[in-house]
Each structure stands twice: as structure tokens, then as C-alpha cells.
Specification:
Number of domains: 1
Largest sheet: 10 strands, mixed
Strand content: 15-25%
CATH superfamily: Alpha/Beta hydrolase fold, catalytic domain
Number of strands: 10
Structural class: alpha/beta
Mean pLDDT: 79
Shape: globular
CATH architecture: 3-Layer(aba) Sandwich
Number of helices: 14
Strand order of the largest sheet: 9-1-2-4-3-5-6-7-8-10
CATH topology: Rossmann fold
Low-confidence stretches: 1-29, 295-353
Radius of gyration: 23 Å
CATH class: Alpha Beta
Distance between the termini: 92 Å
Length: 405
């Protein structure tokens, strides 16, 4: 008769498996993903740029047709105010109108209307609809989207969108609140390339320029595109004389390999003659950080006409902008892209080496510097201009550099 204190082999196996499972759970708990150091980030943001007003915001959606083009639009705007400057945001490849939330939120809270639109349906569907995408040949596909034909189509679509905006401006209550004499264009990735073409970059193949019906006062290029094909870098940017803020960094590599080295992204700033040009260059900020997409696609409102409110702090005065609150919502540290169809939204190999806290601080730097740039050029704010010239470098510290012309 077996001693009741002796376990059977089957029981021993069950006990062992239970202990192994508990051990794994303990190990997982011990090695939990790092979290954002909220106190540290708050302290850092508090030393940055702050606007005089901080607006409650709302995001709404609409769809327009303009000639041969169909546009899905996201409007992120202050809930109050009139004569509001307008920023048109152009997302990257594979992204939808909900991309760039970190930037759209910060700018809207600072008093800007932000229109986000993917100009060409082919750009939004880039990673899923093409045969090259199905084969996984993303490099070939991405290069096609930067080619002359696609770039020219993108600018024609932008011209059609702006013409439609002009036509509707006097009829729709939301649009009547916008000041179409103060317009900036910002873009990420392929959207940055379109923005730079608007600024005056010479297109590939010397394609004829596309005239826009609305004057553009300033450009923000997040991860600006540059390569060694086409005209020489020394001549490609010689027509750019308007204010341009280029934003990139030494880890800004796209997995598709469109830009051979992050250092090449300095070229537009280095070669443009504009006296209003700035380059924000960050250390250890990956391509995904510059996308500004703080929500996964499934978290963002999906239905046209949905309304998502921003914080409810209302409009209020802040302290000094040189040592103020910072400029808008800070990311929770996520690096996800703006669209689940975008295969490179999670960044590149090595992203894990940058902590969520560092990523949140880099996002705050981009929010602060870009908002000050908009204030200086669309609102003609002399304090913002002075902050860019004197105080921004002290805030950035060893996290990067801010160069100017």
C-alpha cells in the first residue's frame, strides 16, 4: 500500500507545472515594462515654452469632394475664439487623418485650428493595397510614393483642397472662425516632403510647380525627406526663403530605407537660404516619435461626425512663457503609429533602448519648439521669437540642438 504522503508521478508533474507557472508570473511581474516617470516629465515640461492661453479643444470629422478628389478630414480646434490661424497637417505613409495626435493636440490647445488630411488615398493604403506591399517589398513601394508622379499628384490634391476650403469658408460656421491669411503646413514623412515642395524645394524631374490658391506663411517638416538622386543638394533647396522648421534626429531611420542615413535629413536646413529657418535635432528620437501618434488606431474615434473633447480647463492665462507649463498635451510615452496598417509605426529595432520617459520628453520638446515657431510666424509673437533665439537651447540641453539661420 502506498504511503499517503507519497505523491504519484502525475501529481508531482502537476505541482512542478504549477510552480513553474508561478515562477514565470513572478518573473514577468519583476520585469514589467518601464513606465513614464510622470514627476520627472512634468518638471521638464514646466521649464519649457508655454503660451499665454490654453484652450479647451474638440476633434470632429468630415468628408469633402473637390473635383476628382475625395478627402477625409479631421478638425482639431479650440472650442472658442475667432480669427484662428490654421495649420494643415499631412500624415505619413500608411497613416490616416487621426495621425499626429500629439502635435494636433498641442497646437490646438495653443489656439490653432488644425486640419489633418491624407491627401491621396494611395498614401493611406500604401502598406496594404499594392502588390509590392503584399510581397513585403516595402522599400520599392515607399520609393514609388516619393517619385515625381505621386509628389505632383499630392500637390494638385492640396491645391484642390485649399480651393474647396476657400469656397466653403464663408458658409460653414466652423470654417468662418479660421483666418485664412495665416496658414501653416506641417507634415511627417511623405507629408513632410509635400510640405517642403510647398516651401519651394525643387521637385524630382523638374516637374512644373503647382500654384496654391491660399498663401502659406510657414512650414514644419517632421522627418524631412532627402536623398542623393535628382538635382544636387546645393541647388535643390535654393528657392526656399520662407520660415521652415525642420525636425529630426540622429536615430530618425525609416525601416523602408527611403533615407540612407538620418544625417541626410539635415540637408534641407543646411542648403536653404531662408533667414527664418530652424532645425530641431534630437538625440535618440526614432522615426516613430516624429509621427506624433499617441493613440493606437482602435482607440481613436472611427466614425465621421464623432466628437472627442480635449481637456476641460477652459481658456486661461498662464505664467511666463520662458519658464511656464509647456505647450499642450504630453504623450504617455507610446511610440505607436497613427494607423494599425502602418508597418513601421512601432519604430525601428533598438527603440527599446530609449526609455518611455525619454520619449515623452522628446515629444514635449517637439511640441514646445513647434508651438513657439507657429506663434512667432503666424501670430507674430515677439516673445515666442525671443524664446526660440535665447531660451530654447537652455531647455533642450543635452537632448539635442536647435540651429537657426
Amino acid at each position: 500500500m502506498m504511503d499517503s504522503r507519497t505523491a504519484t508521478p502525475g501529481r508531482l508533474s502537476t505541482v512542478s507545472m504549477t510552480l513553474m507557472a508561478l515562477s514565470l508570473l513572478t518573473a514577468c511581474a519583476t520585469h514589467a515594462p518601464p513606465q513614464v516617470d510622470e514627476a520627472r516629465v512634468k518638471q521638464f515640461v514646466g521649464r519649457g515654452y508655454a503660451t499665454d492661453e490654453h484652450f479647451s479643444i474638440a476633434t470632429t470629422f468630415s468628408s469633402w469632394r473637390a473635383g476628382e478628389y475625395a478627402f477625409d478630414l479631421a478638425w482639431t480646434t479650440p472650442v472658442s475664439g475667432n480669427s484662428i490661424p490654421l495649420v494643415i497637417y499631412l500624415p505619413g505613409l500608411g497613416e490616416s487623418r487621426t495621425a499626429g495626435e500629439n502635435w494636433r493636440t498641442a497646437w490646438a490647445q495653443a489656439g490653432y485650428a488644425v486640419l489633418s488630411v491624407q491627401l491621396l488615398a494611395e498614401d493611406q493604403k500604401a502598406w496594404t493595397s499594392d502588390a509590392a506591399a503584399r510581397r513585403g517589398d516595402f522599400g520599392v513601394l515607399a520609393r514609388e510614393r516619393y517619385a515625381q508622379e505621386a509628389a505632383s499628384s499630392r500637390l494638385r490634391a492640396l491645391a484642390a483642397l485649399l480651393a474647396e476650403l476657400q469656397k466653403r469658408h464663408g458658409d460653414e460656421p466652423l470654417l468662418r472662425r479660421f483666418d485664412l491669411s495665416q496658414v501653416a503646413i506641417a507634415g511627417f514623412d511623405v507629408g513632410a516632403y509635400a510640405s517642403m515642395l510647398v516651401a519651394g524645394e525643387r521637385p524630382k524631374g523638374n516637374a512644373p510647380p503647382v500654384r496654391l490658391p491660399i498663401s502659406v506663411a510657414a512650414i514644419i517638416a517632421l522627418s524631412p525627406y532627402a536623398d542623393f538622386s535628382g538635382s544636387a543638394l546645393s541647388t535643390r533647396y535654393q528657392s526656399i526663403t520662407m520660415p521652415v522648421l525642420s525636425i529630426s534626429g540622429d536615430a530618425d531611420s525609416d525601416v523602408a530605407g527611403i533615407v540612407s542615413s538620418p544625417a541626410v535629413r539635415r540637408a534641407p536646413f543646411e542648403y536653404m537660404p531662408s533667414k527664418g529657418a530652424y532645425l530641431l535635432w534630437l538625440a535618440n528620437a526614432t522615426h516613430a516619435v516624429f509621427s506624433g501618434s499617441g493613440l493606437a488606431a482602435e482607440e481613436a474615434p472611427a466614425e465621421p461626425g464623432a466628437d472627442r473633447r480635449g481637456d476641460s480647463q477652459g481658456t486661461r492665462k498662464s505664467g511666463s512663457r520662458r519658464e511656464g507649463r509647456g505647450s499642450g498635451n504630453r504623450s504617455s510615452g507610446t511610440d505607436s503609429g497613427g494607423d494599425e496598417t502602418r508597418p513601421f509605426g512601432g519604430g525601428r529595432p533598438g527603440d527599446a533602448a530609449t526609455s518611455p520617459t525619454d520619449r515623452a520628453m522628446n515629444i514635449s520638446l517637439i511640441q514646445g519648439v513647434s508651438t513657439a515657431f507657429l506663434d512667432a510666424n503666424l501670430k507674430q509673437d515677439t516673445i515666442a521669437q525671443e524664446w526660440l533665439l535665447k531660451d530654447a537651447r537652455r531647455w533642450i540641453g543635452q537632448r539635442g540642438e536647435l540651429k537657426q539661420k
